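Sharing a chain and its predicted structure for anyone who wants a worked example. Both blocks are below, sequence first, tokens second.
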Amino acid sequence: MKPLTLLRVLCFVVAVPIFFVRAHGQVVPGTGIHQTRVGDDFEDEAWQWFPNGQKASREQDEQERRPLGGSNNSRWFESPKRGMPDVIERVATPEGGIAGSKGALKLQTLHTGVPGRPNRKMEQDDFIMACASRIGGVDVSRSPNVTCRIWLPPYQNWEDRSGSHFGYRIDVKTTVTEKKKGFLFTRSAKEQEAYWPGFFFEFHSETDPRYEEDEAVLLIRGNNLGQEVKSVQLSPGWWTFGMSVTPDGRVHYYAHAGVNDLSASDHLYSSFPYGYTAEIFATQFFNSVNMNDGRTFSTPFIIDDPAFFTLR
């Protein structure tokens, strides 16, 4: 893996204004022990993706179409819920990337949703880091945290559509109490619930009469109701994003332009998304989003060095 700082100082859309909160008591993403059994640097020139047939679409039609796609290093797999991007390709690292990086990964998609059934609705495909299968679920008492460098293309290369174009998220789990009705009585049962906090990149196209010029903004999902929170303006080029989960079950979001390691000053927001308290970290993943018309590719994004850390 390329050099990373191992220890740092602890320190769809309803868009609501962002509230900047002091980073006191948080964990800056990239802090602690780098868990090298998961994540990737894409430096291996032999890196390859195997689609393994038609993509999954369990979310739409209950079809997983196994075997799922996966990478030849077994570090990435296709989502059984939504399927995989159509383009998963190792490419040369764009200018301005991490020092010494020769390889990164391009993600782009065309046929989202149910294979062969374009519906002109916004749909997404998922690219998922193999984590639970390699090291197991991680208790939030270990302060799990993730980082990734992501290259955003010039605005003229974005899909000409206002809305979300790309997501970088984590999979965390909590315990909820469900009411189950029986023949004679109703009982309460505790169940594990998964949810997916993270970032979305929203584009505003100059061809949309609502906007005078092309621009992109960062949305954070989300606040305590699960609503997306409008954050900073995004510019083309390299950005560094990160998320951490602290032992109190809160999720903390960080970002800045460029590829330098994150610091406490890059803190954007903290919340208990959906009102949930996180208990287990499962993985990190990426969403490629487009208007599923069967003809228009999603915006191409390039990721590098998605990494996972724990404090112990």
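Comments welcome. Confidence is low (pLDDT under 50) at residues 1-24.
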